[in-house]
Amino acid sequence: SRERFMKTFESIRGHFQELFRKLFGGGKADVYLENEADVLESGIEVVARPPGKQLQRISLLSGGEKTMAAVALLLAIFRARPSPFCILDEVDAALDEANIDRFTGLVREFLDRSQFVIITHNKRTMGIGDVLYGVTMGEPGVSRKVSVKFSDIHQAGYVTDDKQA
Amino acid sequence: SRERFMKTFESIRGHFQELFRKLFGGGKADVYLENEADVLESGIEVVARPPGKQLQRISLLSGGEKTMAAVALLLAIFRARPSPFCILDEVDAALDEANIDRFTGLVREFLDRSQFVIITHNKRTMGIGDVLYGVTMGEPGVSRKVSVKFSDIHQAGYVTDDKQA
Amino acid sequence: MELKRLELFGFKSFADRTRFEFDSGITVIVGPNGCGKSNVVDAVKWVLGEQSARSLRGREMADVIFAGSESRRSLGFAEATLVFDNSRGLLPIGATEVEVSRRLYRSGESEYVLNRKPCRLRDVRELFMDTGVGADAYSLIEQGKVDVLLQSGPLERRLIFEEAA
Amino acid sequence: MELKRLELFGFKSFADRTRFEFDSGITVIVGPNGCGKSNVVDAVKWVLGEQSARSLRGREMADVIFAGSESRRSLGFAEATLVFDNSRGLLPIGATEVEVSRRLYRSGESEYVLNRKPCRLRDVRELFMDTGVGADAYSLIEQGKVDVLLQSGPLERRLIFEEAA
Ligand SMILES: Nc1ncnc2c1ncn2[C@@H]1O[C@H](COP(=O)(O)OP(=O)(O)OP(=O)(O)O)[C@@H](O)[C@H]1O
Ligand SMILES: Nc1ncnc2c1ncn2[C@@H]1O[C@H](COP(=O)(O)OP(=O)(O)OP(=O)(O)O)[C@@H](O)[C@H]1O
Ligand SMILES: [Mg+2]
Ligand SMILES: [Mg+2]
Fold it and tell me: Which residues have beta carbons under 5 A from ligand 4 (an ion)?
């Protein structure tokens, strides 16, 4: 059980280092045991250094940088221990457009082994969908599903209620 | 002191009811003392009902609805007890475009008595700025200020480093 | 173990029976603030056995039953059904398709159904154990919660790693 | 009591002396993730007397001193200056312009200056008392914190109301 934990942990660690570099275009990150002697109880520390910057506490990172580092860590866990599907609810809220492109590019690389359900308000993120559903509330308080074509978003950015699903 | 608190409280309450209706285009919200008998110690409760929906716990509201209700409450406090300036750091992160328009429209109504500094990634929010500053990090880890013209944002959405401030 | 579809009926704002068919790749869900997108995520957590009303943004479990709106009366129960493809046999059940259903009545009575046979909550939980799927797995990132892994303390973080290991 | 300008030097990522002139209406600040926008907000809180390193995303106050980067060495102190228009006499000081400066050395030594005269932190705090301006006022909404008023408990919320009253 101690071995099993360490095996998964080392796998997450390796993936995290790699995925961080991918998402940040460089830099360095790591995840390690606070107390290496106590594998079964030790807490886990995270450090991250965006490219060109000095290594500092993770708390000093910006909102968008924290999101990108968190995504790298989450996908590292995902890669170490694949889950059949992954649901992401507005994880791109704090990201600028360049980071959204890197984030969506990375999600695409996981498609060989995972299925994604992504909720977003961002047009670029919408662009990687194979299927796009709109949820509307034409009748106040009552949700309805509609199918959205990609051509709809680029014009209005919004889903109107007169579509049938 | 008890009177002073109640006077400000009633003022905040009135403004909150009005600003909520303005931001939501209807609906109803209120703020009240948990224990009306204990003015000096009582906790404060908030309720909010978007238009057409049933009144429920505020926790059940969506991310964007919570932001809009919070903005109504914050600006209500602002109106009851004006502060010379207000700094908003990415408060629009959870808002869809229609709500961003309502939010920016309301901020404009406060200009007669307050000055605003708004940080955002959203082009619509950028549109209400009288002055626009870009912050860049051409040299990694070192922030620089640049002046941005409105024509710059609409093309690239982004500030490039070759501008001087 | 792909997600094939989710059906909601009376679950939060989904007063009418609504079905979402998931793509094997990326399914994107869009819509205005408050239209019901995160409620879809809550439904997935709930049908997989989430027992904490707080983690579904409510205070008691009955909060997930459609509470009515301006134009509709409240409903007597909430229901959600999740269907998985099991052709690779990852789920320890002898069927190529697995359908999990949960229903909650206002009386507080609950029903769980697995491939059309009534079962208990623990049967549902045991079915998904060791698959990386579950109400609190790292494979479901809620709105506003992407940073949690980064912001939490070393011991909290450990709990999430242990779940993966 | 308008904000006229903010000057940063050695404060967090602002290694070079940088000045922001604020508009009397709306000043918008934009830029990519991690470029330094929220650091500007931290500087305003800090110069107004913020004493909690945690509330500036650090763990000790020295965290606000430029820590160096790939291309630059760290600096020996952090400095920020905020200038207000006081032509309406709202600030209890006999001057039409009020300049507040704060400097922190790596040794831990701090300096505060009010209109070019050295003063103590409490002089700065007392100056702004009753103006609605302050490091922890409701007039400064930090990134990710807009919902705080809504999510907090009734008693926490009371504290914020009391500050306004
Ligand atoms: N039991 C219920 N009955 C009726 N409506 C409900 C119920 N529970 C929640 N709601 C409503 O659902 C709405 C929230 O939906 P949801 O959180 O899914 O929105 P969203 O689409 O994710 O929006 P956002 O983009 O702002 O995150 C709220 O307006 C809330 O009032
Ligand atoms: N003392 C310091 N010395 C050097 N760099 C620092 C220091 N403190 C913080 N930083 C850097 O400042 C950056 C964060 O800046 P900030 O939070 O202002 O970004 P931002 O522009 O608000 O980005 P976002 O859009 O993602 O919110 C981090 O990369 C951090 O490493
Ligand atoms: Mg949502
Ligand atoms: Mg920021």
Answer: A 62-63; D 38, 143
CA–CA min distance D91, chain B (Å): 11
Among the listed residues B31, B3, B70, B78, the one whose alpha carbon sits nearest the alpha carbon of residue D132? B78
Residue A64 beta carbon below 6 angstroms from any ligand 2 atom: yes
Check: CB of residue C100 under 8 Å from CB of residue C114.
yes
pLDDT in tens, C53-111: 999 999 999 999 999 999 999 999 999 999 999 998 989 999 999 999 999 999 999 99
Q: Predicted confidence band at C132 (pLDDT cuts at 50, 70, 90)? A: confident
Radius of gyration of chain D (CA): 16
Percentage of chain D lying above the pLDDT 70 cut: 98
The residue written with tokens 């009135």 in the block is B14
Task: Tell me the C-alpha distance between B61 and B43, whole Å.
Answer: 21
Ligand 2 nearest-atom number relative to CA D39: 18
**Contact of A66 with A59, CB cutoff 8 Å:** no
Q: At residue D141, does pLDDT exceed 60?
A: yes
Instruction: State the ligand closest to the CA atom of B137.
Output: 2
Confidence tier at B164 by pLDDT (50, 70, 90): very low
Confidence check: pLDDT of D137 > 90: no
The model's pLDDT over A122-142, given as tens digits with 9 standing for 90+, comes to: 999 999 999 999 999 999 999
Cβ-based contacts of D70 with chain A (< 8 Å): 51-53
Residue B74 burial by Cβ neighbours in a 10 Å radius (0-12, 13-18, 19+): buried
Q: Report the C-alpha gap between A63 and A56 in whole angstroms.
A: 15
From the CB of C33, is ligand 1 less than 6 Å away? yes
**β-pair partners for B44:** B33
Q: Can you tell me the distance from the alpha carbon of B20 to that of C88, in angstroms, rounded to the nearest whole number?
A: 52
Buried-exposed string D20-42: b where 16+ CB fall within 10 A, e elsewhere: bbbbeebbbbbbbbbbbbbbbbb
Q: Running DSSP on this structure, what letter comes out for residue D135?
A: T
Phi, psi of A135, deg, nearest 5: -115, 135
Do D133 and D48 meet the contact criterion of CB atoms below 8 Å apart? yes
Q: Looking at residues B87-107, what average pLDDT do you find? A: 98
Within a 13 Å sphere around the CA of D24, how many CA atoms are in the beta-carbon half? 4
Q: How many residues does chain B have?
A: 165
